[in-house]
Each structure stands twice: as C-alpha cells, then as structure tokens.
Write a structure and sequence with these properties.
alpha+beta, 4 strands, binds FE2/S2 (inorganic) cluster
Length: 166
C-alpha cells in the first residue's frame, strides 16, 4: 500500500505514464508530463514524489529536483484538494482582486498560503495568469479559470466546491 512517504503510481497512472513515454524520444524528455501525472496522483511534487519519479524514470534525483523547483506549477508543499490561486497582478488588482482574496480569507478562515484544517482548500496568490481582459480572476487547481469574479460568484464557487463529494 503506497504511503505519502512512499508514493507509488496506481495502475491507471502507470498506464498513462507508459503512454506518455511513447510520445518522447527519451525518458528524460518525458519528465515534465510525468511530473504532472505524479502531482495529480499524489497532490504534490515534494521530495518523496521526486524520489519516486527519479527511480521510475531512472533519472538522477538532482535533475528531477531541478525541474520541480524551476517550475512554479509544481507544488513542493502539500496543498488542499482545491488550490485557489487568485491573481493579484495589476489588472486584477485594479478590478478588485484584493476584495476577492479577502472574501475567501473570511469565508475559509485562512490566510494566503494556508490550507483549511479539513485539507480541502488552499489559498494562494499568483502573478498575472494572462487573463487580464476578464479580471479579476482565479485559477483552480492550476487548470481551470474563473473570470470576471465578484465576491458573490467567488463565494458561490467555494460553496459548490465545498459540497462536492469527489
Ligand atoms: S493581471 Fe490578473 S490575469 Fe493578468
């Protein structure tokens, strides 16, 4: 049984990894998508995950660590099931990003950089996410955008996520 300290891909993730390998000329070239699978599978890409991926791909741990630490999309700390990255760059800030951050802080009773005690939500801020025309916005779990946010739509999103069973 895999543990957080000894992660191991599920059969489905292993299959996906093997499929990814067929698209690249070398294993090293497939490192980024493999780390992406690993982060999705384990919820982060910290030291134990880096070790697992290095062994799986027969790559030096130092190389895997260098890639993980270079790209901000890889989480080196545990985050909640729902990672809320609120853009606080200029366009978003001018259109109320601070109010969005504040309403999330108040609703979840956490500060930026913290995770709720039930492990469901992490609140973070982000630099420009290239959606300035629909500011203010946030990114959920690094792959979904919620745009033209108001306090009302933000709280509605949080209620919807909080009520999910998955
Ligand atoms: S400033 Fe927020 S998306 Fe560009």
């Amino acid at each position: 049984m895999p543990t957080p300290e000894e992660p191991k891909f599920s059969e489905a993730a292993l299959k996906e990894y093997q499929e990814v390998l067929t698209h690249y000329p070398t294993r090293r070239a497939a490192l980024l998508p493999t780390l992406w699978i690993a982060q999705r599978e384990f919820g982060w890409a910290g030291e134990p995950v880096q070790r697992y991926v290095a062994e799986l791909m027969e790559l030096p741990l130092s190389h895997v660590r260098a890639v993980v630490t270079f790209y901000p999309m890889f989480q080196q700390e545990h985050v909640g099931k729902y990672l809320l990255d609120v853009c606080t760059n200029l366009s978003c800030r001018l259109r109320g990003a601070d109010r969005i951050v504040d309403c999330i802080r108040r609703r979840l009773k956490i500060e930026v950089g913290q995770t709720t005690s039930d492990g469901k939500f992490t609140l973070a801020t982000a630099e420009c996410l290239a959606s300035c025309g629909t500011a203010p916005m946030l990114q959920l779990n690094q792959d979904r955008y919620y745009e033209n946010l108001t306090e009302e739509t933000t709280l509605k999103l949080i209620e919807e996520l909080a009520s999910r069973d998955d």
